[in-house]
Amino acid sequence: MNQESFDWKKLLLLALPVLFCLGLWFFDDISDIGFEYTVPIFALVPQLETSKLYLYIHLFTVLPILFLSFDRRVHFHTYWKQLFPAILFVAILFIIWDIIFTQMGIWDFNHDYHLAAKLLGLPIEEWLFFVTVPFACIFIYECLNYYVAKDLLAPLDTIISIGTATVLLSFGFYHLEKLYTSTTFILTGSFVLFHYLNFENTYRSRFYLAYLVSWIPFIIVDGVLTGGITEQPIVLYHPEEFMGFRIGSVPFEDSIYSLLMLMSIVTIFECLKQRNNSNDIPSRKTNPKHKISTISL
């Protein structure tokens, strides 16, 4: 949509949920019953019982993408100038969230599976998480943009966006006593609704498709983080602060947390590409069979 028609009052759809969640954090009383160490296990892999495991996850996630980034068709490396500012901006917000929740005792990290170095209470590997995982997921997004000519979910944009926002906000307010659930669901539902009301669907439904496809590597990577193949999880959760529903070993809230993080990054990423295009910087290299439109703010 054009900048002149942008309704800045709709920013309240983001500001009010953030303030509301901050209020929940301030007034919530976290019990001291401890973290949940027992989770469903797919199969134990003894070779992964090491303090380098979290580091290995990053290498497994990012090295193949670094190699494939120079593919002569997708040319993912040519988008790094726009991608990394988007990743880093969102990472700052999520790291602040991460630090606060760690200090509050809503989640923590098992020292048996990460290096000793910490910064502001978070393992160094946790800081890397907000770079390597989005980097890999946006690669999936760009590959689908290149190879899938048709925007398959475009006819369902309204149903997906409004339906997702409604369900997430409903669950978030229903579980106000569970801070991980309420915070994640309310913020994500609000952002999806904000996006639908303020941005034309030039990439949103394509993002939805990429998000669905990313569930496959997400379940693998997050499954390791949450203890699916080790004796204990890397990431520990307070049992009273999330719903307790897991996909294998992965708390369902993790998938919604990922939705919020990735959709935020893609939004900024596409805005930066549109700005570069308007300055006559070479645009996205698309499959000759189709072109992807970009948003116009």
Question: Would you kindly provide a written description of the structure presented here, covering whatever features stand out?
Answer:
The chain has one domain. It is 57% helix and 5% strand. It is built from eight helices and six strands, in the order αααβββααααβββα. Helix 1 (12-27) runs antiparallel to helix 6, helix 3 (80-104) crosses helix 4 and helix 3 (80-104) runs antiparallel to helix 8 (252-278). The longest helix has 27 residues, at 252-278. It is globular. It starts with 11 loop residues before the first helix and ends in a 19-residue tail after the last helix. Residues 280-286 and 288-297 have low confidence and may be disordered.
Q: How is this fold's topology laid out?
A:
Blueprint lengths: L11 H16 L25 H16 L11 H25 L2 E3 L8 E2 L2 E2 H24 L9 H18 L4 H20 L5 H22 L9 E3 L8 E2 L2 E2 H27 L19
Antiparallel strand pairs: 1-4, 2-3, 5-6
Helix pairs in contact: 1-6, 2-4, 3-4, 3-8, 4-7, 5-6, 6-8, 7-8
Give a quick precis of the structure.
The protein has helices at residues 12-27, 53-68, 80-104, 124-147, 157-174, 179-198, 204-225, 252-278; strands spanning 107-109, 118-119, 122-123, 235-237, 246-247, 250-251.
Gyration radius (Cα, Å) is 19 Å
Separation of termini? 5 Å
Uncertain ranges: 280-286, 288-297
Briefly note the structural class of the backbone. Answer: mainly alpha
Main beta sheet strand tally, sense and closure? 2 strands, antiparallel
Number of H- or I-type helical stretches? 8
Q: Give, in order, the helices and strands.
A: HHHEEEHHHHEEEH
Please bin the fraction of helical residues: 55-70%
Name the overall outline. globular
